[in-house]
Structure formats: structure tokens, C-alpha cells
Task: inverse folding
DNA sequence: GCCAACGTTGGC
DNA sequence: GCCAACGTTGGC
């Protein structure tokens, strides 16, 4: 039996689709479509219902982890690959053997204060994180349990710090 | 807006 | 199979 993955990170440009959009979506759920990278697709295919997801805003100011979502439907064919009018239309993908998949994710929570990329870079425990690798562009990536815990901890600390002068800034 | 890093394409 | 050219990503 293979190891079961539990934690992931999904990137989205907030101008295209933000965590706020997810929170306001019907059933607070969306199909994560448009992924057109084989490595990212393979990670989508490895996702299981209940897996936890860090929601990351790329091309944002500042780029940050902004909250948590969860997988509510495992991989199935991405409809946009067959839609000529869609920006992600792929004319070389055929319905009898779809090339691209998507999953459904549901909003869990938005961090009170986002955890910015530059703060992540300062964490010794996150040195191996895919997101922080130079040149990394992977929009769907696995997150180690230790990394997940560290980021959730950072989100909590930043939340609890609000309004308190006694907790030193770092 | 710049540009480094990356993935894909296609000529050979 | 090689690799130059190209388009995209995404931090800065």
C-alpha cells in the first residue's frame, strides 16, 4: 500500500480566483480546473477526499498563504479542455482519453492574517518546501505534515498577536 | 515592467 | 535525441 497523502498547496492568482471567491461560491465549493502541467495534474490525481489544502495567492501583494480548503471530490476530467471558447482549451486532448483532470475543493477557513512568502522563507522548518524552491512554479504541490503544522502555527501566531504589544514582532 | 526559471514545441 | 526558440509563471 502506498503512503497516503494528506496535505497539499494550491496556487491561484487572486485576480483570477481568490479565497474570497471560494468562500462565496455555491456550497463554498469549486472545481479546480485549468491545470495544464503534467506534474501538477499527477498531484491532482493523487488527491483523496478529505485531504487538506493550503490556499496560496500568487502574483499577489504580498504573495501569501491565505487559508485552508479541503478536497471534496477526487480527480475527474476537466471540462474546459474540450471547450473551444475556454482559455484552457486543449485541441489535442480527446474525450475518450482526457488529458487533464480537476478536483473539487471546499472552503474551510480564511486566515485572519495571511502568512506571506517572505515569512515562510525565514522558517528553518520549511527549508525543503516546494513552494520555496528557486524557480518553482508548480501550481499543485504536496506539503509535508511538518510543513503544514508549521504554517498553521504561523497563521495562529499572527492571529493571536493582533492587538497585543507584548508579543514581540519577528 | 523586468527577467530568471521552467515546460513545451518542432526542426533537424 | 538534441536543443534553440518560444510562451508562461511569478517574485520582485
Result:
Amino acid at each position: 500500500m502506498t503512503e497516503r497523502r494528506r496535505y497539499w498547496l494550491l496556487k491561484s492568482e487572486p485576480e483570477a480566483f481568490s479565497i474570497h471567491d471560494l468562500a462565496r461560491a455555491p456550497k463554498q465549493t469549486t472545481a479546480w480546473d485549468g491545470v495544464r502541467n503534467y506534474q501538477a495534474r499527477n498531484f491532482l490525481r493523487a488527491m483523496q477526499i478529505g485531504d487538506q489544502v493550503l490556499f496560496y495567492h500568487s502574483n499577489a501583494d504580498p504573495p501569501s498563504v491565505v487559508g485552508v480548503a479541503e478536497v471534496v471530490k477526487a480527480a475527474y476530467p476537466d471540462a474546459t479542455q474540450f471547450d473551444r471558447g475556454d482559455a484552457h482549451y486543449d485541441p489535442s486532448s480527446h474525450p475518450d482519453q482526457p488529458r487533464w483532470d480537476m478536483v473539487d475543493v471546499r472552503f474551510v477557513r480564511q486566515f485572519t492574517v495571511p502568512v506571506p512568502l517572505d515569512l515562510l522563507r525565514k522558517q528553518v522548518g520549511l527549508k525543503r518546501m516546494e513552494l520555496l524552491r528557486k524557480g518553482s512554479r508548480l501550481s499543485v504541490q504536496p506539503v509535508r505534515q511538518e510543513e503544514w503544522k508549521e504554517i498553521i502555527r504561523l497563521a495562529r501566531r499572527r492571529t493571536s498577536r493582533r492587538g497585543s504589544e507584548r508579543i514581540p514582532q519577528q
About this structure: Confidence is low (pLDDT under 50) at residues 164-170 of chain A. Chain A has one domain: 7-162.
